[in-house]
Specification:
By secondary structure, the chain is of the alpha/beta class. The chain has a six-stranded mixed β-sheet, with helices on both faces. Strands 1-2-3-9 form a four-stranded parallel β-sheet, sandwiched between helices. The radius of gyration is 19 Å and the shape is elongated. The chain has helices spanning 2-11, 24-35, 60-75, 92-108, 124-135, 151-160, 175-182, 194-208, and strands spanning 16-18, 40-43, 54-58, 80-85, 112-116, 141-146, 167-171, 188-191, 220-221, 224-226.
Length: 235
């Protein structure tokens, strides 16, 4: 990624839409692009300490709080354990989801223990090892909040160890999650419209290049709570 961003900086661009981890070298690369007059819009996960032009995507902290609200209402005051998973450390968006989730769970479910199995990059065989290690000694797994991916793998290892969580909350509607939702093994999916994010990214580029003037560039997507009965219709 760093090599690609350097090449873009040398040849020039009207804009870069970037989903990347919040790491110092990537932040420096973003700063170099903007210093060269190339606007950078971060997508889905932010690099907040960079000089990026705009962020488009979910309010990830509120997405995490929404997941915790649903989890708390579903568990209804029960004690037990809830598993959280992120695809990668240093994805700022997932870190924000995690912080928001923990904030509300601590307030609304003080008797629930949160355990974290993160870093599998959403890749099934990596995810299996992380989850298997974390849940091997758990006796009372009530719920799962998956902030990244690899949900089929997570469900498989839980089933292999005899865990059947009451509630499983995931993000995004890829083919795997749509199928798992239809099967009833995902309880809720937190979804946002990627096409709206891309549209907002282009609006940010257009405003940067003074092709249009907006009072305020929209950037935050609405959070939709999807069940098997209200899947969004894609054109």
């Amino acid at each position: 990624m760093l090599a690609i961003l350097r090449r873009i900086g040398k040849r020039g661009s009207h804009g870069v839409c970037l989903k990347a981890r919040d790491l110092p070298r990537i932040c420096d690369a973003v700063n170099a692009l903007t210093a060269a007059g190339i606007p950078v819009v971060t997508l889905a996960t932010d690099i907040p300490n960079s000089s990026r032009t705009a962020y488009v995507g979910l309010d990830n902290a509120n997405a995490g709080r929404t997941a915790a609200y649903l989890m708390a209402k579903f568990l209804g005051g029960q004690a037990g354990t809830v598993l959280t998973t992120k695809s990668q450390h240093a994805f700022f968006g997932e870190e924000e989801r995690d912080s928001g989730f923990r904030e509300v769970m601590k307030r609304d479910c003080p008797d629930v223990e949160l355990i974290d199995a993160s870093g599998g990059a959403g890749v099934p065989w990596h995810m299996i090892n992380h989850v298997a290690e974390m849940v091997s000694d758990v006796k009372d797994l009530k719920g799962v909040y998956s902030m990244g991916g690899g949900n089929e793998a997570i469900l498989q290892i839980l089933a292999d160890q005899g865990h059947r969580p009451q509630v499983f909350i995931a993000h995004d509607l890829d083919k795997e999650n749509k199928r798992l939702l239809e099967q009833g093994v995902l309880t809720f999916v937190l979804y946002h419209e990627l096409r709206a994010d891309i549209r907002n990214a282009f609006l940010a580029f257009a405003q940067y290049h003074r092709l249009m003037q907006l009072d305020e560039t929209p950037h935050v997507s609405d959070i939709q709570i999807v069940t098997p009965f209200n899947p969004p219709h894609f054109s």
